[in-house]
Every structure is written in C-alpha cells, then in structure tokens.
Amino acid sequence: MTITDSARFAQFLIFGGSGDLARRKLVPAVVRLARAGLLDAGVQVIGVGRRPMSDDAFREELRAALPADLGDAFEGIARDVHYRSADVGDLRSLQKLGAEVDALVDRREFGRLCYLALRPGLFATAIALLRAAGIVHRHDHEGAGYRRVVIEKPFGHDLASARALNDALHRELDEHQVLRIDHYLGKETVQNLLGLRFHNAIFEPVWNRHHVELVQITVAETIGVEKGRAEYYDGTGALRDVVQNHMLQVLALVAMEPPASLAADVVRNQKVEVLKALRAVDREDAALYSVRARYGPGTSGAERLAGYLDEDGVAPDSATETYVALRAEVDNWRWRGVPFLLRHGKRLPRRFTEVQVQFRMPPIQLFNQPRGMSAAAYHRAIRDGALCQIRPNVLKIGIQPEETIGLSFGVKRPGPEMTMAPAALAFDYREYFGIEPPDAYERLLLDAMNGDATLFLRADEIEACWEYCDSILSAWRVPGAVPLREYAAGTWGPPEADRLFQGCEGGWTRG
User: Fold this and answer.
1) Those residues with Cβ within 8 angstroms of residue 472's Cβ, 6 or more apart along the chain or in another chain
2) Which of 331, 247, 356 is nearest to 281 (CA)?
3) 181-226 pLDDT per residue, tens
C-alpha cells in the first residue's frame, strides 16, 4: 500500500526484521501503540532481512508470534506491514532497498526510523552504507522529515571500541539522530525514579550522604546461558553484559542532581556528571571492592543444573564471570563516602531487579535494648560492631518482575515495653492502576518517533560507563588480583560478596 496522508507519518524499518527481537518485542510494541491510538498519524512497518520473503509470509510469521490479545489490532495495521530483502553490508543491495521503501510513500515529507537489530560488528558499516544509499541522511533539524537510527546494545566491548564506534557514527549522522537504546530505561519503575525523587518534597532533603548509609542495586537472574547464548556471552561476561549498561544507568538516575527541566540533554547532562564521578578502580581497590565468580553445578528444587563450563558453546578454559558484585563510590559533594553496592548474577534462586536506599540509623538508640544490658554497654556494643540492629528505614524500588515501591519504618510493638517492630508502606503498579505496565519498547519506540531522546544514551554517557568498567576489567586482568570464584547454580553467589558490606551495614537483598 502507498501512504499519501499526513506529513507526520512514520516509516519504521527493522533491519533484522525476521529475527526474534522483531517478532517478540518490536512489532508487538508497535501494534500496542496503534491500538492505544498513539500512532494516529500512521505507521508503516518494514522488516528487512537477507532471506527472501513475501509481505504475506512476513505477516503470517508475525501473526503466529503475536500474543492472542493483539490479533485484531494487528489486522488494523497489517496492510502497512511489509518485508524487503537486503544485505546491510552491500551498497547496491541497500540502494535497491532505498528505492523500494521510497516507493511505499509519496514524495512528501515523512519520518523514517531505522532500527538496527543486528550483530554489533555491523553497526558502523551499516550506517555508513545506509547513508550512502540515501536511506538516511545527515540533518541538523528535527521535524516531520526526520531520519533517525536506533542501535541495540552492546555498544562496543570496551572504552576504545565504544569511542571508535561513536566516531564512525558521527562521521555519518548528527548525535541527535543516533538513539542508543537500553530497554531498562523504558520500564515504568525506572522512569519513576525521576518522579519519585523530584516530585515528592519529602525525599530530596534526605537524599544525600548525611542521611543515606548505602544504596543496593541488584539484577538477579535464574537463567544460565542455555538456548545458544553461550557463543555471545562467553566473550562478554556479567560486567559487560549488565553492569556497564543497565545497572550504571539505574545508578545514575538514583544519584543524579535535580535537572532544571525534563529536556533530554538537561537530564542526560546530570546523569553524565554522576557517571564521570564514579571512582576508577585500581588493582588494590579491585581486590577489596569487587568479586567475580561463575556458577558451577547445582540444583533448583528437584532439577539438576549444569555448571557454566558444562554449558554448550562455553570454552573449556573459559575465565568468563557470570556473577559480579561491586562496591562503587561516587566522588561528588552529595554522595562522597556512600557505597553503591551493585550485584548481578546468573543461576540465582530468584529473578528480580531492585533498588534499595538504606537510610542511616538515628544518632542515639533508645529502643530494643537487650534485657539486662546497661545503656552504656548497649551503645558500646553498637559502636564496636558487636551488636547490629536492623535498619528501620529502607526505600525499596522493584523494577522487575514486580514494579513496586515500598518504605519500611519502625513501630512500637503492643505491650508494656518500648520494643520496636518493622512495618512497611507498599505500592504496586498493577494493583493501584488496575493495568499491566506497558512494555519498555512501547515507550522507547514512541519516544524515538517523537524525537524525545531522554531515555536513550548519549555518546559521552556510553563512554563514561565504559571508562569505569574498563578500570575494573584492567584490574581483573592482573594475575591473582581478583580470583574467579565459583558458586553452586541455584544459590545466591559466592560468600565473599558479603564482605563488601562493612561492619553493621547490612546484607544483600533477596527480593
């Protein structure tokens, strides 16, 4: 079908259009946006892949993969769903593709969003050839005739490769045309970190080193590297795969200064300042403040789980970590001295992603003094670490699978004695609003079409993340500096990670 209406019409090209990401995430996200009336200007979806396929065959593949509740909504846009065969590494093939996708619209102005669901090694070449073929072009303005490119992670494998890729992209396109996507930033609870912090006046006065004892960020997974993921993962590892992008982005949102506005670059400027303030890790720091490990054989209920070295596709001499725990420091005025404890692992007992902001204890402990212990002895025991008390005030922000916010506090237990017990306030997105939170890709694709780059990563943001992670990787490469430990699959990781908590600070959350 040829589209002739609306200058705000979007043409959405998915390179890697016959792949899993397109079927499971991208096309369903577009269908939901259309069903919600958020694409009333019209959208044309064009899958691009190397293997030949007709439009009808492509539509049938998508229908088979879509959730049942999206069937009717898909039929509403099905006539605007197409497939074209092309090779992103061949200029002539892309020139032919350019002529074909231009023919699907008239010559009036329309927006074009190119999503590169490709192997990372193809990004630079693909964008250079897309520009040479005229499918995208450099422009210094945003409007109905935009040309933008969305790039999936991983964006480089270290600081040098990330810089080289940024340089290659900037030779072809302006920075505002390049949208580096991290699907975590599209999750409702991650976005709500901004609203929670800057809309509620009760948090800002205590959101600093004077009142916050530590911050925990956990990304726990029950899966290993089954289903063919080992080929990618064994050359990547936990630090590169999750910490460098997802976890540092969440850290930046937790720690950033209040922005003057919600304009994309104003928000991103504040995030970059946090990332640049992360203290680099040297060899001595790495031994004290980082733990790396991989899972060995274990069990989950009655199921026996293979160890990492026994997974298909893993090299027998692999030194890749599947677990990492870090004690990070943000060296700025607000956070100096407050540890940010980051933990990510595979084959753990539960799947969850959570932020915990743990507030300091009151300066004098008046309650829960053990019977028979004098006040002086009680305070000496607390001071010396011989007696640890549960921190009464912890703000928990659940990101997945449950999207929740909880605040714990102490209340007096009924009875004649002044004994405090823990209580909590809780908020659940699904329960409160009565709907499922939208999939992250819905928000991100809509923002990409609207030109809102707030939730996408800027070049200097990517490089700041890699600079911190490179310092850790460099220290790990020193023989014997940080040993690669092992934990049984189905457990919470190596016990050595507990030492990242000092004194009575606490312990790792278990969701």
Assistant:
1) 239, 281, 286, 290, 326
2) 331
3) 998 898 888 888 899 999 999 999 999 999 999 999 999 999 999 7
Parallel, antiparallel, or unpaired for β 212-220 and 339-345?
Answer: parallel
Catalytic-labelled residue, pool 82, 183, 246, 344: 246
Q: Which amino acid is at 235?
A: G
**Cα–Cα dist 506/388, whole Å:** 9
The pLDDT of residue 1 is 43
Who contacts 33 (Cβ-Cβ below 8 Å, separation ≥6)? 39, 43, 442, 445, 446
For residue range 70-80, list pLDDT tens digits in order.
989 999 999 99
Give yes or no for residue 141 having a pLDDT over 70. Answer: no
Tens digits of residue pLDDT in 346-363: 999 999 999 999 999 887
pTM of the shown model: 0.91
Q: Is the peptide bond before 316 cis (omega within 30 degrees of 0)?
A: no
Per-residue pLDDT averaged across 258-280, rounded?
96
List the Cα angle 374/505/274 in 5-degree steps. 145
Higher-scoring residue by pLDDT: 379, 224: 224
Q: Is 152 helix (H, G, I), strand (E, B) or coil?
A: coil
Q: What is the DSSP string of 334-347?
A: TTTT-EEEEEEESS
Dihedrals φ, ψ of 112, to 5°? -135, 125
Residue 49 backbone dihedrals phi, psi, to 5 degrees: -150, 170
For residue 62, the Cα-to-chain-centroid distance in whole angstroms is: 26
- Residues of the chain above pLDDT 90, percent: 71
Say if residues 455 and 191 touch (Cβ distance below 8 Å): yes
Q: How far apart are CA 472 and CA 495, in angstroms?
A: 20
Phi-psi region of 243 (alpha: psi -120 to 50; beta: other; left: phi over 0): alpha
Q: How far is CA 249 from the centre of its chain?
A: 7
Calpha distance 504→381 (Å, rounded): 11
Contact predicate 323/237, CB 8 Å: no
**Residue 375 has what pLDDT?**
67
Distance of alpha carbon 57 from alpha carbon 244, whole angstroms = 39
Comparing CA positions, the residue from 234, 321, 334, 222 lying closest to residue 277 is: 334
- Reply yes or no on whether 176 is catalytic: no
